[in-house]
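User: Reviewer 2 asked us to show a designed sequence for the structure in our supplementary figure. I'm pasting the structure tokens here. Could you produce the per-position amino acids so we can include them in the response letter?
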């Protein structure tokens, strides 16, 4: 019975890591899009803010892409899902976060 309990705990932990990675990707994309709306250098500010809001274990394979069209700044964050321990090996797929925000007009 003990191996079955341990296997269940490992699978539950992996599900927690998967969910947390989705949450990090969405939050990072949201913060990146917001930062890009108020800055002169929209691309640079957006990408910097996207990486800034990620814990160190998730920054290794992270990709932040930003764009602007029609008065809207968009940010896409792609993160790898760690296997059991953040910062070590990762699954061969990524989770994505996407966000957009309207560009602020200056006075």
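Assistant: Here is a per-position design you can include in the supplement:
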């Amino acid at each position: 019975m003990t191996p079955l309990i341990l296997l269940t705990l490992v699978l539950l932990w992996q599900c927690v890591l998967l969910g947390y990675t989705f949450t990090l990707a969405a939050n990072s994309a949201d913060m990146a899009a917001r930062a890009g709306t108020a800055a002169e250098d929209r691309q640079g500010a957006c990408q910097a803010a996207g990486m800034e809001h990620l814990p160190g274990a998730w920054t290794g394979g992270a990709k932040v892409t930003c764009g602007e069209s029609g008065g809207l700044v968009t940010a896409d964050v792609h993160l790898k899902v760690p296997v059991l321990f953040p910062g070590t090996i990762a699954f061969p797929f990524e989770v994505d976060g996407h966000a957009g925000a309207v560009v602020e007009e200056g006075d």
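For the response letter, you might also mention the following. The mean pLDDT is 88. The first helix runs from residue 2 to 38.
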